[in-house]
Amino acid sequence: MLAAKMIREEESFVRKCLQARKQDTVILDEWIKEDKEYREILTKVEQLKAEQNRLTPKGKPTQEQLNQLKELSETIKQLMVEQKEKQAVCEQKSLYFPNVITEDTPIGECSDNNIEVFKWGEPKKFDFEVKSHDQIGKDLDILDFERGVKLSGSRFTVYKGYGAKLERALINFMLETHSAKGYLEILPPFLVTRQTMQGTGQLPKFEEDLYKCASDEESGQLYLIPTAEVPVTNLYADEIMLGESLPKLFCAYTPCFRKEAGSYGKDTAGLIRQHQFNKVELVMYSKPEESMQMLEKLTADAEDILQKLELPYRKVQLCSGDLGFSSAKTYDLEVWLPSQNTYREISSCSNFLDFQARRAKIRYKDAQSNTTLVHTLNGSGLAIGRTVAAILENYQQKDGSIKVPFLLQDYLKTEIININ
């Protein structure tokens, strides 16, 4: 959420950011109108309260004075009701503002305008016709898409045998790797409240993308998390931390649930875009002056997993039109998929500045005991299903088997996954 002070005092900057994101600026115009009316009422209330104080006699009031004071009191009371209504409208509208963008974010309309930062690893040259990961999974009988559909509908998958073991091995490998670098492992709830979803920016704007449960008297509306970012970022919601405790680094494995409405085509093949998938997430709380440096660390830690697995990838910086709603700056890591002869996103690493912290009220006391909003960051470290897809495709052998990446061989107790 953007600060009301920023929207008022830096209107042209906010408008510029909305335009760079290819967002309609009507929301800004509406907010400015409502906020102006709110402040006019606020000023009038203050003036009437001053008048009320002036008219209040030191001694016993006359009947005329009592009538005047009563009339003023009723007017103030009515205006304060209007003031609260206007304030609520402004606060609700502000939840629909996307974050601002950083100065170094490239301006562009879509993913075609993202900037490639660098590539790592050389895509392997195969001397046979490569197969897609979904075909490999079927041939090895380790991925069962048909039974996934039978159980739950399209874009659900059953992992079998070494498919399930590979998924589990990757989760353990990633968590252990990140924990060794100082990330505190968290296992959060997979169901969260509406307020928790609102804290990270999923609500109210993206409600149609979320799976939710029926309301109950105890918890109200609960939502299945689309990413561990949601519960882990909100761990310290409505709290004030000590500055010396920052930065805080967390890693978390969770299943993720997304409707992915409107996603069609090749990007949905196999494990690429599922309604349910596993992911290891990295989340950081940072002091504002350190958050850009922390974004580089977070991204490098996600890259380290790809490098350890020897999977070719590239790092791109997202342009303004491709940025997520809550992000001010994002790097995407895209892994090489031989069957598609292209790179596909496997991690998105973002700095949200104080956007989420303002919504969730996550603060800290600095050295001068001033209360300041933290900066929040997160990134996939990595998406497990897409990592499985990349391993199956990049490590496929001519005989149809899969060579297991060296660092996973102890986890799987095998060097080769053969056809059963």
Strand order of the largest sheet: 1-10-11-12-15-9-8-4
- Indicate the overall shape: elongated
**How many DSSP E strands?**
17
- Structural class based on helices, strands and sheet pairing: alpha+beta
- Given as residue ranges, the uncertain stretches (5+ residues, pLDDT < 50) are none
For the terminal residues, how far apart are their CA atoms?
53 Å
Query: What's the helix count?
Result: 13
Radius of gyration: 26 Å
Q: Beta fraction of the residues?
A: 15-25%
The topology string of helices and strands comes to: HHHHEHEHEHEEHEHEEEHEEEHEEEHEHE
Helical content stands at: 25-40%
Main pleated sheet: 8 strands, mixed
Oligomer description: single chain
- Arithmetic mean pLDDT: 94
Topology:
Layout: H1 4-9, H2 11-20, H3 26-55, H4 63-94, E1 115-120, H5 133-139, E2 143-144, H6 145-152, E3 158-159, H7 162-179, E4 184-186, E5 191-193, H8 194-200, E6 222-224, H9 229-233, E7 239-242, E8 248-257, E9 276-286, H10 291-308, E10 313-317, E11 329-337, E12 342-351, H11 355-360, E13 362-365, E14 371-373, E15 375-383, H12 384-394, E16 402-403, H13 409-412, E17 416-417
Parallel strand pairs: 4-8, 7-13
Antiparallel strand pairs: 1-10, 2-3, 5-6, 8-9, 9-15, 10-11, 11-12, 12-15, 13-14, 16-17
